[in-house]
């Protein structure tokens, strides 16, 4: 009987004191795993936007042709979701960094991104508005200007449980570099950027045909950490033929696929600048757009029934590589060193 009461007492002590601690430990572990899972999702799904749309080519044309310059201001008009808003330049910079680069990146990489975003905004401001958004200097469409998120209203949707921490981190990157821009010959540059290059960035002249001295090809390391660095696109021969004929009705795609691709020319950095497909001369950028390739750094392999494009890198490849900036920051480089590496012959200056 005594033994039975003794065992019952131990059971009661376990249920009252030990079991709740074990349950709390389990809950804490679950919360930690959930937080880590959230962080991983952000890093994977929030890919650097790479400012990879038509704006880049337009920027190159604007830069090479010059244009009327207007006075710079600390206020900026931004088209957000089609609605024109006026905001402080530094608020725009923080929102652009949040949308363009994962907040998990090192602080110096985020600072470099902040200066690039500010520089591009000041550059666009100096040119005035354009036909796409005549009432705003920049817009939040990354295929035209740069992605943007309002941190006051959009941080939680972007980062979930990390919203407060990462909003503070991104705002600090903007604050730490406030008023700093990249200049060439005393003027704000077209500070274009991309997610990842293939060991070397591309010169602007190789991609857009405009020779811009500060957008030359430089070495870049760490880019292969980008989740989309290596990719392949495979099409059946008939599917490929129909796409090409739909775009170029006079193209000659008779015979086997291996005979369709000739005169492939590459840049110094390795990106395809031009090629002939079925006798039709195409730019590498045209091939990339037509088949939605991650970059112009591609190779082509064929079978009798299929065509495969294998790409390295992600984005147009010109200017600052975001994953390259990440690696440089991890190696102890400052944001100034990162920017001066990718934008050759430039200086870090204060806004006038």
From TrEMBL:
GO terms for cellular component: outer membrane-bounded periplasmic space. One of its GO terms (biological process) is sporulation resulting in formation of a cellular spore. Pfam families: SpoIID. Residues 83-184 form the Sporulation stage II protein D amidase enhancer LytB N-terminal domain. Residues 45-64 have a biased composition (Polar residues). InterPro entries: Bact_Sporulation_Assoc, SpoIID/LytB, SpoIID/LytB_N, Spore_II_D_firmicutes. Residues 45-75 are annotated as: Disordered. It comes from the Bacteria. PANTHER family: AMIDASE ENHANCER, N-ACETYLMURAMOYL-L-ALANINE AMIDASE-RELATED. This is Stage II sporulation protein D.
């Amino acid at each position: 009987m005594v033994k039975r009461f003794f065992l019952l007492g131990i059971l009661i002590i376990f249920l009252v004191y030990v079991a709740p601690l074990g349950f709390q430990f389990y809950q804490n572990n679950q919360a930690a795993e959930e937080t880590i899972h959230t962080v991983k999702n952000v890093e994977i799904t929030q890919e650097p936007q790479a400012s990879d749309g038509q704006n880049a080519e337009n920027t190159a044309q604007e830069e090479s042709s010059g244009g009327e310059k207007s006075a710079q201001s600390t206020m900026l008009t931004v088209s957000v979701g089609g609605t024109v808003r006026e905001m402080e330049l530094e608020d725009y910079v923080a929102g652009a960094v949040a949308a363009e680069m994962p907040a998990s990146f090192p602080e110096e990489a985020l600072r470099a991104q902040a200066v690039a975003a500010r520089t591009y905004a000041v550059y666009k401001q100096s040119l005035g508005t354009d036909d796409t958004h005549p009432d705003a200097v920049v817009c939040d469409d990354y295929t035209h200007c740069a992605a943007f998120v309002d941190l006051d209203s959009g941080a939680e949707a972007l980062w979930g449980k990390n919203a407060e921490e990462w909003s503070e981190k991104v705002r600090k990157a903007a604050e730490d570099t406030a008023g700093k821009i990249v200049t060439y010959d005393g003027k704000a540059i077209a500070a274009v950027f991309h997610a990842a290059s293939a060991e070397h960035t591309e010169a602007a002249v190789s991609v857009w045909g405009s020779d811009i001295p500060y957008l030359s090809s430089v070495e870049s390391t760490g880019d292969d950490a980008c989740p989309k660095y290596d990719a392949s696109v495979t099409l059946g021969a008939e599917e490929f033929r129909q796409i090409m004929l739909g775009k170029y009705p006079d193209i000659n795609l008779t015979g086997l696929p291996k005979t369709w691709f000739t005169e492939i020319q590459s840049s110094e950095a390795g990106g395809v600048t031009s090629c002939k497909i079925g006798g039709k001369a195409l730019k590498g950028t045209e091939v990339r757009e037509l088949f939605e390739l991650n970059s112009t750094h591609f190779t082509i392999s064929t079978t009798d029934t299929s065509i495969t494009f294998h790409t390295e890198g992600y984005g147009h490849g010109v200017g600052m590589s975001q994953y390259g900036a990440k690696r440089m920051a991890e190696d102890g480089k400052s944001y100034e060193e990162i920017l001066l590496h990718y934008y050759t012959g430039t200086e870090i200056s204060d806004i006038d």
